[in-house]
Design goal:
There is one protein chain. By secondary structure, this protein is mainly α. The chain has a domain at 120-248. It has helices at 29-80, 90-97, 101-107, 111-126, 135-155, 157-164, 175-191, 202-222, 229-248; strands at residues 17-18, 20-21. Strands 1-2 form a two-stranded antiparallel ribbon. A hairpin with a 1-residue loop joins strand 1 and strand 2 (20-21). The longest helix has 52 residues, at 29-80. The protein starts with 16 loop residues before the first strand and ends in a 5-residue tail after the last helix. Mean pLDDT is 77; it is low at 1-27.
Length: 253
């Protein structure tokens, strides 16, 4: 017999195949099917192994990125202890972090971008505005978080003054801005749950108040942060509490 045929119980062809090529010399169709299934399982196992290797490689790359960014943030923090941002070069940052200059640009567009990332990481580590807070505790926790944010800006006032000379801090893409805005929306929902009763969207109102809040803090630190953090927070509460409730419940809006 010279050709393999699925209808033939025995096959001694040197090139046995059932639609796909199998090993030579299969003696019956059941052996062919078994070998085919076994080969498929081996292929699937190899495929799963390769996928696991790719996942692990991706995780390793993520860890390398995190480590590189950490080294760069530590480098600029160290350099800023002795120099102003305008006097620091990318080459100096790269040397301090012990990385190539090209590696720096793989993660940041410029030194202002790196400084902002450093300050955001500091805020994430030092300030925690909880989510999922019960309504009766929301306002209390919210204002506590705002007070801690004011204190944070005072601690890093020198760096924020330098950063503001080259980059806009009040941006919806900034984590601090977006987090405070999110809590403003929670506060607005507590005051007026029915969106149909207001003409100005809560999104717009929250952006307006968040931008005003952050701008007031930046002006405060530019002026030397003479008033206490508690007074600044109290002023902001006075400006927002009654005004928000009045604004959301007026029929002419």
């Amino acid at each position: 017999m010279t050709h393999c045929c699925i209808k033939t119980p025995f096959c001694f062809s040197p090139h046995c195949c059932i639609k796909t090529k199998l090993i030579a010399g299969c003696k019956n169709i059941f052996t062919c099917i078994y070998i085919n299934l076994n080969s498929t399982r081996k292929y699937e196992k190899k495929l799963e192994l390769y996928r696991n290797m790719e996942d692990q490689q991706s995780k390793n790359e993520d860890l390398r990125v995190q480590r590189t960014k950490y080294l760069l943030r530590e480098a600029i923090a160290k350099l800023l202890e002795k120099k102003d941002l305008k006097d620091i070069s990318i080459q100096q940052i790269s040397k301090q972090a012990m990385i190539y200059r090209t590696t720096f640009y793989a993660h940041y567009s410029d030194k202002s971008d790196l400084l902002e990332d450093y300050l955001i990481e500091a805020w994430k580590n030092e300030i925690y505005l909880e989510e999922g807070i019960e309504n009766d505790k929301l306002i209390e926790k919210y204002w506590e978080g705002l007070l801690e944010t004011v204190k944070y800006f005072k601690r890093y006032s020198k760096l924020y003054i330098q950063l503001s000379e080259s980059k806009s801090i009040i941006s919806k893409h900034n984590l601090i801005f977006s987090t405070i805005k999110k809590f403003f929306i929670l506060l607005l929902n507590l005051i007026q749950p029915d969106d149909s009763k207001i003409r100005v969207s809560k999104e717009r109102i929250s952006e307006f108040y968040t931008a005003g809040y952050l701008n007031s803090i930046l002006n405060w630190i530019h002026d030397g942060a003479k008033e206490s953090c508690e007074l600044i927070t109290k002023d902001f509460i006075t400006l927002t509490d009654n005004n928000l409730e009045f604004l959301l419940n007026q029929s002419f809006l």
